[in-house]
Specification:
By secondary structure, the protein is an all-alpha fold. The protein contains 10 helices and no strands. Helix 2 packs across helix 3, helix 4 runs antiparallel to helix 6 and helix 7 packs parallel to helix 9. The longest helix is centred in the first third of the chain and has 29 residues.
């Protein structure tokens, strides 16, 4: 799909008189471009469905629904439940490969969503209907599934040999995600990403003290920046619980 986007932008002159501000005027496109748009649209839909299918297979829809319910700021779970779905039947190597594919999907979608000029040009040429196109669902769903998988591996006693590698993946993804959230200005995107931030904070709170302190040290600055921003009520409540959770191990480590 990324190749299709690159091909289209090589074929479009960016030095035309096209306004970069979205209005109700769309430009005429050739039959070849229409066919290209159709391929692009199908690729976007298929990739989004693949992400959802992976989540359903690894965890089962009911399990993911329970996971989403735990994001409620008033809910703090003790311990972890046995994973449902096909998680236990896949090797850690296979799970890592799936995580890498999901992360590639996430990176492409995030890059696309960040490039507002590219999105407006595509809209001007009639791609994906009457509004400026985005890949918001693909961007967030792929990251959520990746985080769920990494945390499952990280808490699975039968995969202890892979915990160091999992920790590297998890720390990088957590820090990058927190940092990215602090830079978001578009309200819809902040709202969509708020669910990811809530999940990451809740997952961190369930770690043992040693792991919690290690990860907190890597993303403390980013979390403080989030705390200083204007946030939804649910996120404010979880941030408060998060720093209460951090109090005991922090004071213990400095005593």
């Amino acid at each position: 799909m990324e190749t299709y986007f690159r091909y289209f932008f090589r074929s479009v002159s960016l030095h035309s008189d096209t306004s970069m501000e979205p209005d109700n005027t769309q430009l005429a496109v050739s039959r070849a471009d229409k066919n290209l748009f159709q391929h692009l649209h199908i690729g976007c839909v298929v990739q989004s469905e693949i992400v959802q299918t992976i989540d359903n297979i690894i965890f089962f829809p009911a399990s993911s629904a329970k996971e989403d319910a735990r994001i409620d700021p008033y809910y703090i779970s003790e311990g972890s439940e046995s994973p449902e779905g096909m998680f236990n039947f896949l090797t850690t190597k296979q799970l890592f490969r799936i995580v890498e594919c999901l992360f590639e999907s996430h990176k492409f979608s995030k890059g696309f969503n960040m490039d507002i000029d590219q999105r407006r040009i595509l809209w001007k040429y009639g791609f994906k209907g009457k509004t400026v196109p985005h890949l918001q669902k693909q961007e967030t769903a792929s990251l959520l599934c990746s985080l769920r998988m990494l945390h499952k591996i990280y808490s699975d006693m039968s995969r202890m040999d892979e915990w160091p590698k999992t920790e590297i993946y998890l720390h990088r993804l957590t820090v990058e995600s927190f940092e990215y959230y602090t830079m978001l200005e578009e309200e819809k995107r902040r709202y969509s990403w708020g669910k990811i931030v809530l999940l990451m904070l809740k997952k961190m709170m369930l770690l043992d003290d040693e792991r919690f302190i290690v990860l907190l040290a890597k993303c403390y600055n980013q979390i403080c920046h989030i705390l200083a921003q204007e946030n939804e009520r649910d996120l404010q409540i979880v941030l408060s619980k998060f720093f209460l959770r951090a109090r005991n191990p922090l004071f213990k480590s400095t005593s």
